[in-house]
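During the second year of the project, the team shifted from modelling isolated chains to modelling whole assemblies. The rationale, set out in the original proposal, was that interfaces cannot be judged from single-chain predictions alone. As a representative example for this report, we include one of the complexes processed in the last quarter. Its constituent sequences, exactly as entered into the pipeline, are reproduced here:
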Amino acid sequence: MNYPTGFIIRNGVVSDVRPWAAMFNPLAWLQFLHMWLGAFMLVGLVVSGVYAAGMLRGRTDAHHRLGFFVPFVFASVAAVIQPVVGHVLGLQVGNKQHAKLAAFELALHSETGPAPERFGGFLVDDQVRWALPIPRIGSIIARGTFNGTIPGLDTIPRSDWPPVNLTHWSFQLMVGIGLLIALVVVVFWVARRRGHDLLGNRWFLRFSVISGPLAILTLELGWVTTEIGRQPWTVWQVLRTVDAATMNRAIWWSYTGVLVIYLGMAIAAYVVLRSMARRWRAGEEDLASPYGPAALAEART
Amino acid sequence: MSLAAVVAAAMFVGVIAYALLGGADFGSGFYDLTAGGGQRGAELRTLIDESIEPVWEANHVWLIYVLVMWWTGFPRAFAAATTTLFIPLMLALAGIVLRGASFAFRKFAATFGQAQLFGAVFAGSSLITPFFLGTVGGAIASGRVPAAGYGAPVSSWVNPTSLAGGCLAAATCVFLAGVYLTGDATRMGDAELAARLRIRTIVVGVVAGLIVFAGLYPVLHDAPTLSRGLLGPALPLLVVAALAGAVTLVLLYRRRLVVVIHGRRFLLARICAATAVTAVVAGWGVGQYPWMLVDQMRIDDAAGARTTLAALLVVVALAAIIVLPALGYLLWFTQTEKASRR
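Output from the structure prediction step:
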């Protein structure tokens, strides 16, 4: 959808379909790698965070250390490679989808390099407000050269603008949190090499606990970045989202239904998981089903 | 046979596999629902747990396979069916999601009351899912899905053929599950439980048979194209289904669930029941050939690009090589592991 290939549109009809070319388009491998690494970061950090929480409560035995290390090693490798992959992917996307790049960079006008990098800020009434510009590095970050031009939103018809602020913020938050995680991971391993075990440091453990939820947030921000940044297109410059959407007006009913069902299941999952943890702490390691013969026989006596 | 027809046949193999494997999972909800109170139903519910647990949700790979084949190979028919039948499809989806989750929640619920609540959700949603999928089949088979899509949102699936299809799907699942569970109980040597299940399954089998033939009456009036197919090319399959179903009932009645050939045990009743269900579902497919959406869109007209169809067959071959051995091993393993546990 970001790089539609493998077909030709002739008189408004899709023809000359080459499914393998569509599937393995030039962006496919990089996008796959980016998401793959993101998944390893997410799972690794969530699992190691659980053991970090245990260590914060004083359970610093070999079991908890091993439980922390195994997933954390996977997450570490992924977290260090991810910024490089993300950067290369960003360069590719920037070459192709100028509107997305302009929204990433909050670039209202085309900026012949060296262009600044704007941190934060909002686009309000066609004015960039409250952004922190750092001169020159925008070209290096977004285009990979010292003099790269960043195309501005003014080169793009307004009807083809993505929601600029949402794209800009989700992109920069994703990059920011991702770099923070990479930095902490590097600090941990460098310190370990120098003989400092940060597992004894409460602030590191606290960061480990929240790094799981942060990795989930970052992954979602990444999806918001690429999907919202591609709007108003569902298939880039082929199919607009308004044309792709269903004409059915009952869509809100089904959204509401899905929301209610998943809310109910989330509550149920919370209740069951909490009760399992409570019983485990009380020493019940083998949880018998409450309606099984054993449990009922016990209830009768 | 055109390339499109070959792909459609490959897709329909998935429908049959889902009916056989997923159907047995869904059907177990009925026995769970009717197992009785806490004390009385404990053994049966535990048996259902043990039967479903190892393959929990794995059988939905067939549903995913069918849907992916459908929207990739026959996107026009897929769009027409989903925009018309979104209500029963959403309800079936809700059932699938709820039953999978509440099955897992029930096992680890803290109290008996919570387990009862999750159990009711599990059993209820197990039954509504095949019913609504059956109504979808009935809508397609009776020509109520217009080629352009956005057909009648309610009357497309609330009509004689759809309701017969829904009841038939649910009854088939319950019958299959009954035969499978009776086999499991017999093999585990639980004679009392096997006897209880046996009687219920016989009753369900008779009711399912009645639904099939009673259902034929409205279908003959309501869906002429399908009826011509059912009484024409698909008739041998319907005869096979009736015979296999009858043999299953006889085997159950005479307690001959297992036959021993050369020292190896074969679950004959299970094989007969599976044959009956396969023949019924295949009969539907043959009965509506060459239509993908009866009276509206032929398989060849619904098909996407030729290159995509060829690529799909490559994917089917890859899936057969990669997934089938693992899935077969899983099913085999759960059977032997369960047998050796007691």
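The mean pLDDT of chain B is 87. The two ends of chain B are 50 Å apart (CA to CA).
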